[in-house]
Design a protein that fits this description.
This protein is α+β, with helices and mostly antiparallel strands. The chain is 17% helix and 42% strand. The strands form four sheets. An eight-stranded antiparallel sheet has the order 6-2-3-4-17-16-15-10. An eight-stranded antiparallel sheet has the order 14-11-12-13-25-24-23-18. A hairpin with a 3-residue loop joins strand 3 and strand 4 (51-58).
């Protein structure tokens, strides 16, 4: 392998893959990038055995095609110190070293034979399903749901984002049993009803890559892996094995008490009052009466308390309901709406947080938050 490339272009292609590589890998070969040089393109693959990312970047000059596994951290740390300049990379087969040279110097690092590197996981063509989603929609859906995923050892299905696909719509869902967020697009459809659970790590990496894309993403999946292909990237994530809970059955349909309020107004007030909440429970009380909301919190152990009263639109039953302030702050921080509607049934049932104003008719975001017992 022998080629010339811009140091900045190469570093840009490596940085995305660096997020995939795990610090706790049990296979030392996965501490490396796999380079495959074909024609005028360099394929860079990074993997932790469960998530794999392939990036294709152009090269300036190819003298000899080839393939090699190159230490990821050494190469990336070196390139961070270079200005934008042409560099030449050449493998020396006699001593398994790669020589990196530039106008004023050179360095040598080890490489490993490409055949040691695991192959990209393949999709079972007999069980394949696919859907096309715009980068904007997929990025938004992951952004609105990722924070609600869990970290549970006993229930790994809760540790990822559910892709629930049907001929009518596509929904992304995440829940940690205390809160649930469902993002639905009715303008994106799948030919057959199907679903898969994408783990948190590949979902987070995918969201970062999509932030700079404006193309469509082709999502192909079977029972084990999902492929996401767009721009110069192919990302493969091993899916969570298991069945996601029937989330639609827990979303309330008949909460009659509805409060309309500005999202930022409520968020800022909750943040102010939560400073005085109990550090262990983060409990907070919302007291609703006609067109008025009072937020209060206290920590009797430290003799501190706070309350704030806000105007709102509410003509339902007077009610006191408790929430964990950290969960409420998370939900309010991640919703895009200026005005929200908090729908309640009674202090013991889940609250539903929705858009209060007109929004994109093809897009719907609903958040569910479980109440907590209010301390006496």
């Amino acid at each position: 392998m022998n080629f010339t490339i811009s140091s900045t272009e190469l570093l840009h292609g490596l940085v995305s893959g660096l997020r995939v590589i795990s610090n706790k890998t049990t296979a030392p070969i996965l501490d490396n990038f796999l380079f495959i040089l074909r024609g005028a393109s360099l394929e860079i693959t990074a993997s932790d055995s469960e998530t794999t990312l392939k990036t294709v970047i152009p090269v300036d000059e190819v003298k000899e095609e080839g393939a090699a596994a190159v230490p990821a951290k050494i190469l990336t740390d070196s390139l961070k110190e270079f200005p934008d300049m042409p560099i030449e990379l050449k493998t020396l087969e006699d001593n398994n070293t790669m020589e990196i040279s530039w106008a004023t110097g050179a360095q040598k690092i080890p490489f490993f034979p490409a055949e040691y590197y695991p192959e990209l996981p393949a999709i079972d063509e007999t069980a394949v399903s696919s859907v096309r989603i715009s980068a904007d929609s997929l990025s938004a859906g992951l952004g609105y749901t990722l924070y609600a995923t869990a970290d549970e050892i006993l229930r790994p299905v809760m540790n990822g984002v559910l892709f629930d696909l049907s001929p009518e719509s596509v929904s992304l869902v995440a829940s940690d049993s205390h809160k649930l967020v469902c993002y639905t697009r009715t303008d994106i459809k799948c030919e057959n009803k199907s679903s898969f659970i994408l783990p948190k790590k590949p979902a987070s990496i995918l969201r970062g890559l999509l932030a700079k894309s404006d193309s469509d993403v082709t999502v192909t999946f079977d029972g084990k892996n999902a492929h996401f292909q767009f721009d110069s990237f192919i990302m493969v994530g091993r899916l969570v094995d298991g069945t996601y809970p029937a989330y639609r059955t827990v979303i309330p349909k008949n909460n009659q008490n509805k409060m309309l309020i500005g999202r930022l107004t409520l968020l800022n007030a909750v943040k102010r009052v939560s400073v005085c909440s109990n550090q262990a429970t983060s409990s907070m009380k919302l007291s609703l009466s006609f067109n008025q909301l009072t937020i209060s919190a206290q920590d009797t152990g430290f003799s501190i308390s706070a309350h704030e009263t806000l105007p709102c639109q509410y003509d339902g039953d007077p009610m006191d309901i408790g929430f964990k302030s950290t969960f409420l702050i998370e939900i309010l921080s991640n919703l895009p709406y200026e005005e929200i509607c908090l729908e309640l049934a009674d202090p013991a049932r889940a609250a539903l947080i929705l858009a209060a104003e007109d929004h994109n008719p093809d897009e719907d975001i609903c958040a569910l938050l479980m109440p907590i017992r209010i301390p006496n």
